[in-house]
Design goal:
By secondary structure, the protein is an alpha/beta fold. It is about 35% helix and about 25% strand. The chain has a domain at about 410-505: GMP Synthetase, Chain A, domain 3, CATH 3.30.300.30.
Length: about 500
């Protein structure tokens, strides 16, 4: 059990710092975290049965709230506050049948979310702790290991450990319930695959409502006895770069958008402590690899995963990094590639749908039998992604199947167009391609860039690599792209924005 692994870490190194919280400026030891977790567990049991909402930033306090919920036998429902906090709170309550949401006043102020009737503030809970509660929690820490572990949850690896929501970048978020077995197996397999055991410090800035942040940034260090260096806003690139320089993490895990922001704000020597840099959640561009190599002599090891797989499916090992691929499958995970036309298994090098099977794969979406049956068959999860496996067992990602559009009766990959567009524009120009309806061709391709480009010259260069039907029919410049909490581009939001501009122009 996750909470049992944490108790082992706390027992082994009670005085070691568990959290260097750069948001509050407070350090929390494993001993303090253990006591706080027990106190919060007792409080949370009085509030809810079954599930409890958690809407807290990446911080020591946020991590302790999740820990306390799990130690109380509750399932934390992680609420995304970056894409509409009020809306997501109500959506989570409706979908998951709970009332209480643990949050903080500072987060409500920052997001513009009003205080809802079911909200409780973590700062108020901590401020009202009495000496008896603290003494009782401390007394529990003196109990034999076996007894203490029974008090915080009997061994049941199929017990729900967390509820998360898919990004909703393409349609309404789905409710993913991950078990103790799902997350524990992913931690063990990922750490073995990437040789993380023995590392001491992890930069933890990814949001906990994202599976990447929850599994790798929160539970992995708690289970391994590592120090988490937390900061609430991963988009404050200059500040995070400074934190890296001052706190010297050994493990750096992030999305391409975040990693690029940090490396651009860094100076030579700032990343000297980093032994391993891992990129996930979105395609890692060659320009980012180049920046890391030129500035710090570091390789980026790209990985791949989904919310439904806890999350890691594959990653490039430390001793066998193949840039451009998303690595080899982690231990205990199987991948097969099926033709999206015939359903037959693809040969090495042949692109098809990526299916995954293993201990990290969810059992299904909460209260959605229809969607679960579509995505899960005989234990195999259909990721909805396209890719291929080479003869050496390296996996390559070629985009979402849903990001293929039919133009004039021909299938066009928006991802392929984006790759070509990135190759012919400036390195600091962000590019995305969206689909809009077209009366003549069914669909038309619109290129969205963060800088003005010479459209005639760009299309001429694109025509050297792409057929005519795949060339953008329009270019739109935006100052910044809408983002999901993970840093991914919000394709729905961007498409809606471009469509609105088109309607206004008409």
């Amino acid at each position: 059990m996750l909470q049992h692994r944490f108790l082992d870490s706390a027992r082994q190194s009670p005085n070691k710092v568990a959290f260097i919280d750069r948001t509050t400026g407070r350090d929390i030891s494993f001993k303090q975290a253990r006591i706080a977790g027990l106190i919060l567990a007792r409080r949370f049991r009085k509030l809810e049965r079954g599930r409890i909402g958690i809407m807290l930033p990446t911080s020591g306090g946020g991590a302790l709230a999740v820990l306390g919920a799990v130690m109380a036998g509750l399932t934390p429902v992680m609420i995304n506050y970056s894409t509409g906090a009020k809306k997501n709170c109500r959506y989570a309550q409706h979908q998951c049948d709970f009332h209480t949401i643990i949050t903080t006043r500072g987060l409500l102020e920052k997001t513009g979310c009003p205080q809802l009737p079911d909200m409780l503030f973590i700062e108020d809970i901590l401020a009202t702790l009495n000496p008896l509660e603290k003494a009782l929690a401390f007394t529990k820490t003196l109990l034999p290991d076996a007894l203490l572990k029974r008090l915080v949850g009997r061994v049941d690896l199929e017990q729900p450990a967390v509820i998360l929501f898919t990004s909703g970048s393409e349609k309404d978020p789905k409710v993913v319930q991950l078990t103790q077995r799902n997350i524990l197996s992913n931690i063990d397999s990922f750490c073995t695959h990437m040789e993380i055991y023995g590392m001491d410090r992890l930069l933890a800035v990814l949001p906990y409502f994202h599976v990447f942040g929850l599994t790798i940034n929160l539970w992995t260090p708690l289970c391994l006895g590592m120090t988490s260096i937390t900061y609430a806003n991963p988009l404050e690139f200059k500040t995070v770069a400074q934190i890296i320089r001052e706190t010297k993490p050994e493990l750096l895990v992030g999305t391409p958008v975040f990693l690029e922001g940090y490396v651009r704000q860094s100076a030579a020597g700032d990343f000297s402590s980093i032994k391993l840099a891992v990129s996930g959640a979105d395609k890692c561009p060659d320009s980012l690899r180049q920046l890391f190599e030129e500035k710090h002599g570091l390789e980026i090891h790209e990985g791949y995963g989904t919310t439904e797989t806890s999350p890691v499916i594959s990653a490039n090992p430390r001793d066998d990094n193949r840039p451009g691929s998303i690595g080899k499958t982690i231990p205990g995970t199987e991948v097969k590639i099926l033709s999206y036309e015939t359903g037959e298994e693809c040969a090495p090098g042949e692109t098809g749908k990526i299916l995954v099977r293993g201990a990290g794969v969810m059992n299904g979406y909460l209260n959605d039998v229809e969607e679960s049956s579509l995505k899960l068959k005989s234990g195999w999860y259909d990721t909805g992604d396209l890719g291929y496996m080479d003869a050496d067992g390296f996996l390559y990602h070629k985009g979402r199947l849903k990001r293929f559009v039919k133009v004039g009766g021909e299938m066009v990959s928006l991802v392929a167009v984006e790759e070509c567009l990135n190759a012919v524009t400036d390195m600091d120009c962000e590019c995305c391609v969206v689909e809009l309806p077209d009366a003549k061709r069914g669909s038309k391709i619109v290129a969205v860039t963060s800088k003005d480009v010479d459209t005639s010259r760009t299309n001429k260069r694109l025509a050297e690599e792409l057929p005519n039907i795949a060339l953008p029919r329009k270019y739109v410049t935006v100052s910044s792209f809408p983002r999901m909490g993970s840093g991914k581009t919000d394709f729905r939001g961007l498409t809606d924005y471009v469509w609105k501009l088109e309607q206004e122009a008409d």
